């Protein structure tokens, strides 16, 4: 009986404690910035005019009564990995790149965030005629503002608001979208600004290639529109670098810059390139590798000169075909598909979902072939014909460049993935999760 009484007393005390101690939700303070008394609010255009393009950076002097500020909206984003340690801020008079020594800026300064920037004590300069704001570096360059000083230079005001941003930017932005670019004159007038370029197309020669390659810091793809062109500049660190250049029209959204006489365009995320007329590739057939691929799936291997071979691996929640090139091996290993048969062979291509830590310029070690005469058992290299070269070798799983199957004609065919090492010693591992036939 005493135990029951004690238990009931304990429950009562706990209940009273919980009911009397309500936890308050943390308060959120909306960022609000007011110009200090005596300060000067200037336009971005005014700040850029303090520097002559092609000369050393100019110090923005502090007036006697207070500091100089600019205000505007953030229009860039490093979320996609294509902007690096920079913010592009725009007002109704123009835009400017602010160099800062910090990554992950989109978390604190997303697109549509209004900011005030204290310019006094900073330097205004340019890189290849592209205006930049920051600190002085090596006398002749604009450097990055130290991350510890950011809170004393860049101030947020209110919550991000893209609708209000477009209203603030004024002429050309009235429809709630970036200003439309159609000519060289338009590009020259909107350096460092958020824009859109409709009705673009790539050169047919790059169709099927990725936006950027692993082994090049930046890849420039020429984009044509109207009677002119611009370089689409994509970093090897961009999360969307493996987007395939397609032979169909598209619209670009992003920031225009310039390097001397060349106009450049920088995407923020993969959503900033919008292919029209059904831009997404249609998957006709997909082979996803699993434990049954070699028996039920009828895949097979041929390795006429190898001590190694393709193998299926199930490791760390990934299932893939794996080939490891050892440094002292000569190898010629073929991973061969079952027979593939379609009713419509028009405009089909192949793409791998793979990863390969490529050492040096060794692309010719890794090739894809097709055959319309392989009988499914006996291997004869003369039956096989190479597709275009693989040029996209991601360091984590991603799609390769597009390999056209136009040579197949209208015949049933097989494909083969070939790892062929015949020269310099090297160790590379090639993992393939899946293979898609697309249209």
In short:
The chain is mainly beta and 439 residues long. The protein has helices spanning 2-20, 44-48, 162-169, 184-189; strands at 40-42, 58-59, 68-74, 86-91, 94-99, 114-118, 123-127, 130-137, 141-143, 154-156, 179-180, 194-202, 218-225, 228-235, 250-259, 262-266, 273-275, 283-288, 300-302, 311-315, 318-325, 331-336, 349-356, 366-371, 385-386, 398-399, 403-404, 414-421, 428-438. The model has no long low-confidence stretch (mean pLDDT 88).
Structure overview:
This protein folds into three domains: 40-162, Bacterial OB-fold (OB fold (Dihydrolipoamide Acetyltransferase, E2P)); 178-275, OB fold (Dihydrolipoamide Acetyltransferase, E2P) (Beta Barrel), CATH 2.40.50.140; 283-438, Jelly Rolls (Sandwich). 9% of the residues lie in helices and 36% in strands. The chain has helices spanning 2-20, 44-48, 162-169, 184-189, and strands spanning 40-42, 58-59, 68-74, 86-91, 94-99, 114-118, 123-127, 130-137, 141-143, 154-156, 179-180, 194-202, 218-225, 228-235, 250-259, 262-266, 273-275, 283-288, 300-302, 311-315, 318-325, 331-336, 349-356, 366-371, 385-386, 398-399, 403-404, 414-421, 428-438. Strands 1, 2, 3, 4, 5, 6, 7, 8, 9 and 10 form a ten-stranded mixed beta sheet that branches. The longest helix has 19 residues, at 2-20. The chain starts with a helix and ends with a strand.
């Amino acid at each position: 009986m005493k135990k029951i009484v004690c238990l009931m007393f304990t429950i009562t005390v706990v209940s009273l404690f919980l009911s009397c101690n309500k936890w308050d939700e943390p308060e959120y303070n909306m960022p609000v910035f007011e110009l200090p008394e005596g300060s000067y609010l200037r336009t971005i255009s005014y700040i850029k005019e303090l520097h002559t393009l092609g000369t050393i950076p100019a110090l923005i002097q502090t007036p006697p009564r207070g500091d100089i500020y600019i205000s505007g909206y953030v229009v860039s984003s490093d979320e996609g990995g294509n902007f690096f340690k920079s913010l592009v801020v725009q007002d109704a008079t123009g835009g400017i790149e602010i160099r800062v020594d910090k990554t992950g800026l989109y978390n604190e300064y997303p697109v549509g965030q209004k900011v005030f920037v204290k310019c006094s004590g900073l330097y205004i300069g340019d890189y290849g005629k592209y205006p930049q704001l920051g600190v002085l570096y090596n006398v002749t360059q604009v450097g990055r503002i130290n991350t510890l000083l950011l809170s004393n230079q860049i101030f947020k005001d209110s919550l991000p608001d893209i609708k209000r941003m477009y209203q603030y930017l004024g002429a050309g932005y009235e429809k709630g979208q970036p200003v439309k670019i159609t000519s060289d004159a338009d590009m020259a007038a909107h350096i460092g600004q958020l824009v859109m370029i409709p009705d673009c197309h790539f050169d047919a020669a790059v169709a099927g290639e990725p936006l950027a390659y692993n082994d090049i810091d930046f890849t420039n793809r020429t984009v044509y529109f109207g009677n002119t062109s611009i370089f689409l500049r994509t970093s090897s660190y961009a999360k969307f670098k493996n987007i395939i250049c397609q032979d169909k029209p598209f619209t670009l959204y992003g920031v225009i810059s310039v390097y001397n006489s060349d106009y450049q365009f920088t995407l923020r995320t993969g959503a900033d390139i919008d292919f029209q007329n059904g831009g997404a590739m249609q998957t006709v057939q997909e082979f996803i590798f699993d434990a049954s691929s070699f028996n039920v799936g009828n895949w097979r291997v041929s390795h006429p000169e190898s001590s190694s071979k393709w193998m299926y691996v199930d490791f760390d929640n990934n299932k893939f075909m794996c080939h490891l090139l050892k440094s002292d091996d000569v190898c010629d290993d073929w991973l061969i598909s079952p027979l593939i048969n379609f009713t419509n062979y028009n405009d089909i291509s192949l793409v791998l979902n793979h990863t390969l830590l490529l050492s040096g310029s060794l692309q010719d070690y890794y090739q894809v072939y097709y055959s319309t005469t392989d009988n499914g058992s006996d291997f004869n290299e003369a039956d096989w014909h190479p597709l275009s070269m693989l040029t996209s070798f991601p360091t984590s799983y991603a799609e390769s460049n597009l390999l056209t199957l136009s040579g197949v004609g209208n015949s049933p065919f097989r494909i083969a993935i070939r790892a062929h090492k015949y020269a310099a010693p090297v160790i590379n591992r090639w993992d393939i999760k899946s293979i898609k036939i697309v249209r």
